[in-house]
Amino acid sequence: MPRSTGEAARGDAISARGLEKRYGDLVAVDGIDADVFRGESFAFLGPNGAGKSSTMRMVAAMSPRSGGDLRVLGEDPDTDGEAIRARLGVVPQENNLDPQLTVEENLLIYGRYFGLPRRELRPRITELLEFAELTDRRGAKAEYLSGGMKRRLVIARGLVNRPDLILLDEPTTGLDPQARNLLWDRLRRLKRGGATLILTTHYMDEAEQLCDRLVIMDHARIVAEGTPAELIAVHAGREVVELHVPSDELDRTALDGLVETIEVLPDRVLIYTGDSDKTAAALVERGLARAGIFARRASLEDVFLRLTGRTLVD
Fold first, then answer.
1. Which domains does the chain have, with CATH numbers?
2. Which residue has the higher pLDDT, 227 or 277?
3. What residues contact 52, with CB distance under 8 A and at least 6 apart?
4. How far is it, in rounded angstroms, from Cα 215 to Cα 63?
């Protein structure tokens, strides 16, 4: 995607050109180009096996690339991996805390991995506990925390070294709506403070809420990129009308001249439109609404499913 002058002036947090990752005969990442700008929130979306995790591991300087060029914070992960990792905050999908240590001890030990002295860590831990709303749990063992608390602690742990770039893998998986929204608030606060965020998520509403830009990957390649609003406008339109009728009962000729883009599913038809009221009225006039009509705003999930398909991928 072309950059604006402002984006170019900020410099790239990540720049990839023709990036490849192969495991023997398996091509996990097939020549992708991507830029992530400093201070933005960016996502890699895609079904299982699309190449997201392999890309994130290369960005995190944990897995060497098989081809192409990659720069993270201006450095080459293959030769400057240690320097890059010192500037990264990594939030894994699993809550891999030490359950027998207290909340404070989990942060303290992680900080020591970065060589941070205790005199610096103590005030930093206090700051992070306030940020994560875990101050009153400072002395509690990690095993006794709720799922949401553990997730906030994992995020706080990833910030202990004041990273320039934060990588988040499925940050809210398994959380209830209240815990998810609290974490969204914390991630927005990080971004407002100047942090660069890169995440993977299977929650399309999360990507819409948090991301300035994103790419959708499928079969090891990038199939779309842009802002959430741009992708919805290009691939789904403004609104969707769901016509609830089984595909084997649908007379497609009845839709002739009514819509430009439809998706026929086994139990319903999705009609992508710029005016749901007008489309719904036309469906009623043609006698197609007997089984029910539902109109809604087009979403990033519509885009994702149209581009990557609706078949389960294990």
1. 5-232 (3.40.50.300), 237-298 (3.30.70)
2. 227
3. 44, 45, 46, 200, 217
4. 21
